[in-house]
Design a protein that fits this description.
This protein has about 200 residues and is mainly alpha-helical. It has helices at about 5-10, 20-30, 35-50, 60-90, 100-105, 130-140, 185-200, and strands at about 155-160, 170. Helix 1 packs antiparallel against helix 2 and helix 2 runs parallel beside helix 4. The longest helix is centred in the middle third of the chain and has 34 residues, at about 60-90. This is DNA-binding protein.
Length: about 200
């Protein structure tokens, strides 16, 4: 099974058939897809300027989509290195029980679904790397009451997500499943009440 870097080389290789280059970009999303596979694909296509069903996209646009994905992956991998070093130090210092950020991080190891978007057509518009930087910054500060990606304050509780956790606070503005550790107890309680009001 090819890894992310070898798939990326195929996307960039002008000697490869265009269909293979497109397929290789799709396969990259099996290794790293911050919004989930379908939403990340929709995001990359819209930002690079080709349709999700376009079987013969401009190779320059394919590479532009890959560039955005690679930049975001570099941001996430750097965070994972820092996270691993921090946990190693904490264990050395006797802190064996992980916190809520650690619980969330275990579910997103490798970067899949970091900013999960259950609806593939609703996702942040900013570059992926910027979205991840904002999310990481939120994980490293005190919890707040708004979406860490777009600043939206309309959070609602959603059940039956195609992700783990299968329920949680979703931003009505940008569509991400907001990591619980970045929200205050009050914001989480508000999101739960909003879910009840929406379904009533």
């Amino acid at each position: 099974m090819a890894g992310f870097r070898s798939l990326a080389r195929q996307v960039r290789d002008p000697r490869c058939d265009l269909a293979l280059r497109r397929y290789s970009l799709r396969k990259c999303l099996e290794r790293f897809a911050p919004y989930g596979h379908r939403a990340t694909w929709d995001h990359l296509c819209s930002r690079a300027g080709f349709g999700p069903e376009d079987r013969s996209p401009d190779p320059v646009r394919l590479v532009a989509a890959l560039d955005e994905l690679e930049e975001a992956r570099a941001v996430w991998l750097a965070y994972e290195v820092e996270f691993a070093e921090r946990r190693k130090k904490e264990k050395h210092d006797g802190l064996r029980r992980p916190g809520s950020v650690d619980d969330w991080h275990r579910l997103t190891w490798g970067g899949f679904g970091v900013a999960w978007c259950d609806d593939p057509a609703v996702h942040p518009r900013e570059p992926l790397a910027e979205v991840l930087r904002r999310l990481i910054a939120a994980l490293e500060r005190e919890p707040g009451s708004a979406c860490p990606v777009c600043g939206g304050e309309q959070l609602y509780w959603r059940y039956d997500l195609d992700h783990e956790p299968s329920s949680g606070p979703v931003c009505a503005d940008c569509g991400i499943l907001v990591p619980r550790p970045v929200l205050t107890r009050e914001a989480l309680a508000y999101a739960r009440r909003t879910r009840l009001l929406v379904s009533a």
